[in-house]
Amino acid sequence: MSSNSRQNAETPLLKVSNLETAFKIDGEYHNAVDNVSFSVKPKQIVGIVGESGCGKSVMSLSIMKLLPKHNGEIRSGQVDFKGKELQDLDDNEMNTIRGKDISMIFQEPMTALNPVFTIGFQLEEVLFNHMNISKREARLKSVSLLKSVGISRPEQIVEEYPHQLSGGMRQRVMIAMAIACQPQLLIADEPTTALDVTVQAQILELLKEIQEVNDMSIILITHDLGVVAEMCDEVIVMYAGRIAERASAEELFYNPKHPYTKLLMGSIPKLDEEVEKLSSIEGIVPSLVNMPKTGCKFVDRCPQAMAECRELTPQLKEDNVNHEVACLLYENSFPTERVKVSK
């Protein structure tokens, strides 16, 4: 590999820096994404995992600038895509990037697809938005896209409506729409939710195949660690809007550090173990209005919590194998000084 090629491979395609996204509730802003930083390299698959309410989807909507305008706001931070600061772009400028350079597969295909328009119409709308092509060319391209995502009878499917398709087929349509303009970055928000196990495996295999063929990068948002192990190069574990841990997929699964990550791992059923009851994490993710003001946000659910965990906010610290963790248990293992948050 040449030095230029190596440099391009190492240069992030997407770089998120100190991102804070908040929602206004009863006249006061509450952070749903709190000081999050990470990057995605070309051709890399980054998994973002955590329970519902951890800020995974809000972060993806922040990147796409699709937050609800009436109460959602990016309070600080930067989202850099190929050297362009997305937060500085207006709606028209963002529309030239959405779907073309960065695409998103939304969480629920039945609500993401418009029920009153045919599949063909919705696919063609994406193409017309970014390409100068005729109606006939758009129809042929739509049929080709449906075929590429494994849908049989694509010539007939383009004339049908979302309610006429199964959940797996609707998800394949969403993928076809997302890759229509061959984006460099695909954000997949829970792409296998509400699908049966067999269809889940097919969708994941399809995403992996598309990623390899098109040299795409993928941000894969999920709560399923099995999906992460199968798909991802790097994993980010989020809790209550913050990053708890980040490492390569192999490093994270063989050497989890954060108590939250360990509990998530422990809740996965294992074929070689016979247990009467699966492990679970006590309690729930705190709501935005009940978020702890100081200390670790996981303190009330953590089996290893110490008294100082309520006073000191752990900062992400990196060891010598590119493994980051935000936990006071590892303060002595990492060089950065702890930071005390004022009350």
CATH architecture of the domain at 12-101 and 183-270 and 279-340: 3-Layer(aba) Sandwich
Structure summary, number of beta strands: 14
Q: What count of helical segments does DSSP give?
A: 12
Structural class: alpha/beta
Rg value: 21 Å
CATH-wise, what's the superfamily of the domain at 12-101 and 183-270 and 279-340? P-loop containing nucleotide triphosphate hydrolases
* Strand-residue proportion: 15-25%
Portion in helices: 25-40%
CATH top level class name of the domain at 12-101 and 183-270 and 279-340: Alpha Beta
Largest sheet: 8 strands, mixed
Question: SSE order, as H and E?
Answer: HEEEHEEHEHHHHHEHEHEEHHEEEE
Task: Give the structure's gist in a few sentences.
By secondary structure, the protein is α/β, with parallel strands linked by helices.
Write out key terms for the chains shown.
alpha/beta, four-stranded antiparallel sheet, disordered C terminus, Rossmann fold, disordered N terminus, 343 residues
Descriptive overview:
By secondary structure, the protein is α/β, with parallel strands linked by helices. The chain has a domain at 12-101 and 183-270 and 279-340: P-loop containing nucleotide triphosphate hydrolases (Rossmann fold, 3-Layer(aba) Sandwich), CATH 3.40.50. 32% of the residues lie in helices and 23% in strands. The chain has 12 helices and 14 strands. Strands 6-7-8-3-9-10-13-12 form an 8-stranded mixed sheet, sandwiched between helices. Strands 2-1-4-5 form a 4-stranded antiparallel sheet. Strands 11-14 form a two-stranded antiparallel sheet. The chain is globular and about 65 Å long. Residues 1-7 and 334-343 have low confidence and may be disordered.
